[in-house]
Write a structure and sequence with these properties.
Belongs to the nucleoporin Nup133 family. Keywords: mRNA transport, Nucleus, Protein transport, Translocation, Transport. It comes from Zygosaccharomyces bailii (strain CLIB 213 / ATCC 58445 / CBS 680 / BCRC 21525 / NBRC 1098 / NCYC 1416 / NRRL Y-2227). This protein is an alpha+beta fold and 1141 residues long. Helix content is 42%, strand content 18%. It has a 9-stranded mixed β-sheet. Helix 16 packs parallel to helix 18. It is elongated. The termini are far apart. The relative contact order is 0.04.
Length: 1141
C-alpha cells in the first residue's frame, strides 16, 4: 500500500487552530458559553468545501444539510481600528470589502487566500482634525462599465472600482474613481483625485443610510426623513458629482421642528435596472409608507408607487396577536425577485412584555391601482429577543441573482445572529399553509457584527474579531422544498455543536437562543439520534478508522461529551432525567472501554483473558469490531470479565494484583464515577441523586458488585505491607463499592415492587455482610478520617459508630456531638445499639448524659433491649416502669428464651421494684412474679434431680415418644434454658422419683392458674395417673408404702388443696376428654399423633386397674389425711375437699 498520503485526510477546521495567527493574544476565547466548554475534537474526513490542492485559508466554522458557514482568510483583528465606532460593508459585485472608523478607511479583496492580505488605506480627515462620527462608505462601479456589463458576473470581480465617502454631519460627499490610485496617499494628495459635493444638511440633520443604485447613482437617507439622490457621473459616464434630486423632503415640523419617528426611513433597497442609467428604488419608513422611485441619470426621477403598509399588516396580525395594535413596528423590506417590482417581503415586529415577535409579510403590489395585498404572514420562531440599537435587516440572495427556484431563501440579520427561512417563489396559494423551514446561526456575545453584504448565493457578515464570514445555503436545499421541511432543527444544531464547537476561536454560538418553542419529544428523539451516531460510529464526521482503536474511541468520547454539554446548556430542564441518564450511561460505557483499552495494552495477562471473553461472546469478535460497531455488547462482556477475575485464582504476583486493582480504579471509579457520575450527572446536569432511570445502570448488577467486593478483599489480604499507593487503591475501591450499592438502593426504593425481587434481596445481603468489613479495612490502614467521611456521606451509621469507637476517647468526644446534632435520634439509636451489643453499658448510661432523652426514646421505641432498658428506668427512679419492663422480658414466651439465672434475677428485681412503688402496688403483678419465681425454683430443683445419678426416667417411658420428649426437655434444663410450666410438670412426672410428683403438684398449686383451667386439670390428672402407675398394685401389700400415699401425705400437710388442686380418683386418671387435640397440637407439634397414642396407652393402663380401684384410692386418701392431722374434710362421693379451717 502506498503510504505517501494518509488514507483519511484531516479536515483542518476540525483538527487544527484556524491559523498560527489565531494563537496570538488578539484572538478570542474559544469557550463560547458559560459553564463547561465544548471539547476540542480531531475528526478525519474529506471536505467538499475546500480545494485540497490549493490551500486557501478558508475555514468551515459549521455546516449541515442546509447551509455552510465559512470564515474567509483575511484577518481584520490586526487593523488599528476602533471597535466602538467602526462599520463595514461587503460588496460582492466588486469582490471587495471595506471597514472604517472615524479615522481611516480600509479596503481589501475579501476572498483573498492570505491571512495578512494587502489593505488599501484611505485617511478620512486631516491629521489635526477629529471626526465625531464614522462616515458612511460605499463602493462605486468602475468608470468604464456601461449598462450592458452591469450584471453580477464573475468577470467583474477583479476590476477596479471607486469609493464614496459620505460624512454624516459635515455635509461632505467625496467620490474617488479609482481605489488603487489613492492607496496610502496623504489626505491632501488624495483630495486632488476626489470629486466632492456639499449635501447642505441642516444643523440637526445627519446621514443615516446610503445605497449604491448605479448605474443611476447614490441614494442617501437622513435623520429628518429626507431621501437624496446623488449622481456621480453624467449621462456619458464621465465623473460628475451632483445632488440630482430630493426624492423625499424633510419630515420635520415647520413650527415646532419636531420629527415624527414614523417618518424615519428604515429601508432603502434597489430594484432592477430599467434602462441606461436607470434603476428602481424602494423606500420604506417606520410608519409603513412604501414608495417605488424610478431613478435616472439623465431625466427627473419620478415616483411610481406610494402606499402605506401599516394598517393592513396590523389587521393581518390582530386576530392572533391583539397586542400588535400598540406595538407594531416596520423594520425593513426587500424585493423578492430580481426582475420584478411587484413582490416584496416586509419585516415587522410586535412585542408582548419581554418577548418580541418578528413577522415576515409577503406583499404583492399593484402599481396600476396603487394598492397591495398580503399574500402570506409568517412569524419567526427562532428569535424572540428584543433588538437593541440597529434594526434587523432583510437579505434575499435570489433578488440579486438570475435564477428563480420554487422557494426563496431569506436571511434576517440580527446584531448577533442570522435567521434563515424560506418563502414561496411562485406565490402558490397553498404555500402559507405548509410548515416553513427555519434555522438560526448565532454568534458569540464577544463578536460584534459591524458590516454585511450579499450576492445571489451567500450572505456575508463582518466582525473585527473574526473577519468576514460567509453563510451559503446549499444548492440542493434551494431547489428542494420537501428536503428542507424534513431536516430536523434540533438534530442539526446538536450535530453542529458536537462536531464543530471545539474549533479554536470559533465565533459561532452553538447554544440555541432562549425562548425557542420546541417539542420535548422531538428534542429527546434528536438527542438519541445524535447519541446513537456517535456511539455506533455512524456519524458522517466520524472516520471509519484511525491509527488505533483507542484514538477512534477517544474521538467519540470527546464528541459525546460535547453532546452532553450541549444538552445541559440548552435543554437541561426540558429533557427528562431518564433520557439524560440513558445518554450519560452511553458516555460511561465508552469512557470505561477507553480506559480498559489503555490498561490491556500494558498488561498481557489481562489482555489474554479479555480476548477469551470476546471469543466466548462471538468467535469472530475482536476489540476493533467491539469498539467501533458493537459497543452495546461491552457491558455484558465487561461484567463477565470482572466475574472471571474475581473467581480466578490469581497468581501471587503482586504486580498483577496491582494491575487488576488499578483496572477497577481506572475503568470504574475514574471513568464511570468521577468522569461520568460526578462531573456530568451531578455537576453538569445538576441531577438529584434521587432521580434515577427506568432501569438499573449498566455498571450496577450483582455480579459486578460481588466481583469488586471479592477483588477488594483479595487484594487487601495479599498485601504484606501497605504503601501509600496501596492505601489509595483500597480507599478508592471502598468509595466505589459504597457508591454502587447506594445507587442500587436508590433505584430499588423508588418503586415498592422493585424491592420484592430476588436481586434486591441478594444485593442487600451482600452489602450487610461486607460494609462493616470495608470500614474495618480503612481503620486498619489508619484511614479513619476517610472512613468517617464515607460513612457520613452515605449515612452508614453503623460504620460511622465503629470508626468513632476506634478513635481516642478524648479526640472523638467532640466529633460525637457533631453527629448527634447532624443525625439526631438515628445516630443515637445506632450508637446505643452498638454499646448494648458490645456490652459497653457504662458508656451507654454515663458517657453522654446530654443524650438522656434520646436514650429514653430509644428504649421506649422497642422492647428489643428491655434487658438493658430497666437499668435506665431504675436510674431514673421509674420503678413501676422498670418492674413492667422486667416482667415483659421475663414472663411468657419472652421469658422462655432467656437463661434461667437471668430470668430469676430479672424477676427478683421486678418484684422489688414493684414493692418500692408503695402507692401503686399491684398485688396481681406481684403474684404473677412470685409464681414465676416459684417455677424457676422448681426448674432449679429439677436440674438438681437430673444431675443426680440415682434419679432417672421411669422405665415405662423408655422406647416411647415420651422418652424423646424427656430428653429434649432435660437438655434444655441442663443448658439452663427456661422451660414453660407445663413442660416442667411433664418432666417431673416422668421421673422415677416420688418427690418429683409432689414437686409437680406444688408447682401446679402455686402457678397452675396461669395455665388455664383445662390445661391445669389435664396436668393434675397426668401427675396423679403417673404417680399411681409407678406402682405394681397387685404386689403392693401395704398402701402406706406407696408413692401415692407419700405424695398425698405431703399434699394434705402442705395444704395444696387450698389451691383447688383435685384429689386423685379413678375417673380423673382415666378421663380421655382431657386429652384435647388443641393441647396436643400446641405442645407436641409435629409429633402430636405419636404422643396422642402414648397418652391413650397410658390411660388404658390406668383403666386396667378397674373401677374397684377407686375404693383403694379413697382409702389411701383418708389414711394420708389422718396422718397429716386431718386438716380438712373430704367428701368421698364427690372426691373433693369441702371444709378446711
Amino acid at each position: 500500500m502506498n503510504t505517501d498520503h494518509p488514507l483519511f485526510q484531516l479536515r483542518k477546521e476540525l483538527s487544527v487552530p484556524l491559523s498560527i495567527a489565531d494563537t496570538v493574544s488578539h484572538t478570542t476565547d474559544s469557550s463560547s458559553t458559560n459553564g463547561e466548554g465544548f471539547q476540542s475534537v480531531n475528526v478525519s474526513l474529506d471536505t467538499p468545501h475546500e480545494d485540497q490542492q490549493a490551500f486557501n485559508n478558508i475555514k468551515i466554522l459549521t455546516e449541515n444539510e442546509k447551509y455552510v458557514v465559512k470564515r474567509l482568510a483575511p484577518d481584520l483583528s490586526l487593523l488599528p481600528i476602533s471597535s466602538t465606532c467602526s462599520q463595514g460593508y461587503v460588496d460582492a459585485h466588486s469582490g471587495k470589502a471595506l471597514v472604517n472608523d472615524n479615522n481611516y478607511l480600509y479596503i481589501w479583496d475579501y476572498y483573498s487566500s492570505q491571512r495578512k492580505t494587502n489593505f488599501c488605506r484611505i485617511p478620512l480627515h486631516e491629521e489635526n482634525a477629529v471626526l465625531k462620527y464614522a462616515p458612511e462608505c460605499l463602493f462605486a462601479w468602475p468608470a468604464a462599465m456601461d449598462d450592458t456589463t452591469q450584471l453580477f458576473v464573475e468577470s467583474s470581480l477583479g476590476s477596479s472600482g471607486g469609493v464614496c465617502i459620505i460624512h454624516r454631519k459635515n455635509n461632505q460627499f467625496i467620490y474617488y474613481e479609482d481605489i488603487d490610485s489613492i492607496n496610502n496617499l496623504h489626505l491632501q494628495l488624495s483630495h486632488r483625485k476626489a470629486h466632492t459635493l456639499n449635501l447642505k444638511l441642516k444643523d440637526d440633520e445627519c446621514v443615516t443610510q446610503a445605497l449604491n443604485c448605479e448605474p443611476a447613482g447614490i441614494v442617501i437617507a437622513t435623520s429628518l426623513g429626507r431621501v437624496l439622490f446623488v449622481t456621480i457621473r453624467d449621462s456619458s459616464g464621465k465623473p460628475k458629482v451632483q445632488l440630482k434630486q430630493q426624492l423625499i423632503k424633510s419630515q420635520q415640523g415647520f413650527f415646532f421642528h419636531s420629527f415624527n419617528a414614523s417618518k424615519e426611513v428604515v429601508s432603502l433597497k434597489k430594484g432592477p435596472i430599467v434602462g441606461r442609467g436607470e434603476r428602481l428604488l424602494y423606500v420604506t419608513t417606520a410608519g409603513g409608507n412604501f414608495q417605488t422611485w424610478h431613478l435616472s441619470v439623465s431625466i427627473a426621477c419620478f415616483k411610481r408607487l406610494d402606499i402605506n403598509l401599516f394598517d393592513q399588516i396590523l389587521d393581518s396580525l390582530q386576530d392572533l396577536y391583539p397586542f400588535a395594535h400598540s406595538s407594531l413596528q416596520i423594520l425593513d423590506s426587500h424585493p423578492l425577485f430580481p426582475d420584478s417590482s411587484s413582490s416584496h417581503l416586509v419585516l415587522s415586529t410586535i412585542n408582548e412584555e419581554k418577548e418580541m415577535y418578528y413577522i415576515l409579510s409577503t406583499i404583492v403590489l399593484d402599481e396600476k391601482t396603487g394598492s397591495f395585498t398580503i399574500f402570506s404572514t409568517y412569524r419567526l420562531n427562532t428569535c424572540t429577543s428584543p433588538f437593541v440599537g440597529k434594526r434587523p435587516k432583510l437579505f434575499i440572495p435570489a433578488a440579486v441573482g438570475d435564477q428563480v427556484t420554487d422557494t426563496t431563501t431569506v436571511f434576517v440579520l440580527f446584531s448577533s445572529a442570522v435567521v434563515l427561512t424560506q418563502v414561496s417563489s411562485k406565490l402558490d396559494s397553498s404555500y402559507p399553509l405548509r410548515r416553513k423551514w427555519e434555522d438560526i446561526i448565532s454568534f458569540r456575545n464577544d463578536v460584534k457584527l459591524i458590516g454585511s453584504g450579499y450576492n445571489s448565493d451567500s450572505l456575508y457578515v463582518m466582525s473585527l474579531e473574526i473577519g468576514v464570514v460567509e453563510v451559503t445555503v446549499t444548492g440542493e436545499l434551494n431547489h428542494n422544498e420537501s428536503t428542507m421541511e424534513e431536516i430536523r432543527f434540533v438534530k442539526s444544531h446538536v450535530d453542529q455543536a458536537v462536531y464543530f464547537s471545539g474549533i479554536f476561536s470559533n465565533p459561532i454560538e452553538f447554544n440555541l437562543p432562549k425562548g425557542i418553542s420546541l417539542d420535548v419529544k422531538e428534542i429527546e428523539a434528536d438527542l438519541r439520534s445524535s447519541g446513537d451516531e456517535i456511539f455506533y460510529s455512524k456519524g458522517k464526521y466520524i472516520p471509519p478508522m484511525m491509527n488505533t482503536v483507542s484514538q477512534h474511541l477517544k474521538l467519540r468520547v470527546d464528541l459525546f461529551r460535547n453532546l452532553l454539554i450541549f444538552i445541559e446548556q440548552n435543554f437541561n430542564y426540558k429533557v427528562s432525567p431518564n433520557e439524560k441518564l440513558k445518554l450519560l450511561q452511553r458516555f460511561e460505557i465508552m469512557k470505561c472501554c477507553l480506559e480498559l483499552c489503555d490498561i490491556l495494552k500494558h498488561v498481557p495477562e489481562l489482555n489474554e483473558l479479555w480476548d477469551k471473553n470476546l471469543k466466548i461472546k462471538n468467535r469472530n469478535l475482536t476489540m476493533d469490531v467491539l469498539v467501533i460497531n458493537q459497543l452495546c455488547e461491552f457491558p455484558n462482556i465487561f461484567t463477565h470479565f470482572l466475574t472471571q477475575l474475581s473467581d480466578k485464582t490469581i497468581p501471587a504476583s503482586t504486580n498483577l494484583k496491582d494491575a487488576l486493582t488499578n483496572l477497577l480504579v481506572k475503568c470504574v471509579y475514574e471513568a464511570i464515577l468521577e468522569e461520568g457520575e460526578k462531573k456530568l450527572r451531578y455537576e453538569l446536569f445538576k441531577l438529584d441523586p434521587l432521580e434515577v432511570g427506568d432501569v438499573l445502570p449498566w455498571f450496577i448488577n450483582y455480579d459486578i458488585l460481588d466481583a469488586i467486593n471479592a477483588i477488594f478483599f483479595d487484594y487487601n489480604f495479599s498485601l504484606s505491607s501497605t504503601s501509600e499507593e496501596n492505601k489509595c487503591r483500597l480507599l478508592t475501591l471502598v468509595k466505589t463499592l459504597y457508591y454502587l450499592f447506594n445507587q442500587a438502593n436508590l433505584w430499588f426504593r423508588e418503586l415498592p415492587q422493585r424491592q420484592d425481587t430476588e436481586l434486591y434481596r441478594d444485593i442487600q445481603k451482600l452489602f450487610m455482610k461486607n460494609h462493616l468489613n470495608w470500614n474495618q479495612v480503612l481503620i486498619q490502614l489508619s484511614l479513619e478520617e476517610d472512613a468517617l467521611q464515607i460513612a457520613e456521606f452515605y449515612q452508614d451509621l453503623e460504620a460511622l459508630v465503629e470508626t468513632l469507637e476506634s478513635l481516642d476517647r478524648k479526640v472523638s468526644q467532640e466529633i460525637y456531638f457533631h453527629y448527634f446534632d447532624k443525625f439526631g435520634y438515628q445516630f443515637a439509636s445506632t450508637l446505643f445499639e452498638y454499646y448494648i451489643n458490645q456490652n459497653k453499658l457504662d458508656d451507654l448510661f454515663y458517657r453522654f448524659p446530654e443524650q438522656h432523652d434520646l436514650l429514653v426514646q430509644f428504649f421506649d421505641s422497642s422492647e428489643k433491649y428491655g434487658n438493658v432498658a430497666w437499668i435506665q428506668e431504675i436510674l431514673d427512679q421509674n420503678y413501676k416502669a422498670a418492674s413492667k419492663t422486667l416482667c415483659n422480658i421475663s414472663l411468657g414466651e419472652a421469658g422462655n428464651t432467656r437463661p434461667l439465672e437471668a430470668r430469676e434475677i430479672y424477676l427478683n428485681v421486678a418484684k422489688l421494684a414493684a414493692l418500692v412503688e408503695q402507692d401503686s402496688i399491684s398485688l396481681d403483678q406481684i403474684k404473677v412474679i412470685q409464681n414465676n419465681l416459684d417455677t424457676l425454683d422448681g426448674q432449679k430443683n429439677l436440674l438438681y434431680k437430673l444431675q443426680n445419678s440415682q434419679i432417672g426416667i421411669c422405665p415405662r417411658f423408655i422406647g416411647t415418644p415420651f422418652e424423646k420428649i424427656f430428653q429434649l426437655y432435660s437438655s434444655k434444663i441442663e443448658k439452663h434454658q427456661s422451660l414453660p410450666l407445663q413442660q416442667l410438670i411433664e418432666t417431673y412426672s416422668m421421673l422415677m422419683d416420688t418427690d418429683s410428683f409432689y414437686c409437680a403438684l406444688k408447682l401446679l398449686a402455686f402457678s397452675g392458674d396461669s395455665l388455664g383451667y383445662e390445661v391445669k386439670k389435664f396436668l393434675v390428672a397426668t401427675t396423679w395417673r403417673r404417680c399411681i402407675l409407678l406402682e405394681d398394685w397387685d404386689l403392693k401389700k401395704d398402701d402406706t408404702k406407696s408413692s401415692l400415699y407419700v405424695v398425698l401425705c405431703r399434699y394434705f400437710k402442705e395444704e395444696l388443696f387450698r389451691s383447688d388442686l383435685a384429689l386423685p380418683s379413678y375417673s380423673l386418671i382415666t378421663d380421655k376428654s382431657l386429652l384435647t387435640p388443641e393441647y396436643l397440637h400446641n405442645i407436641y407439634q409435629p409429633v402430636e399423633d405419636a404422643i396422642r397414642a402414648s397418652f391413650t396407652a397410658e390411660i388404658q393402663k390406668a383403666e386396667s386397674l378397674g373401677p374397684q380401684f377407686e375404693k383403694r384410692i379413697q382409702s389411701i386418701v383418708g389414711t394420708a389425711n389422718e396422718s397429716a392431722g386431718k386438716k380438712c374434710i373430704v367428701n368421698y362421693e364427690t372426691n373433693t375437699v369441702e371444709f378446711y379451717s
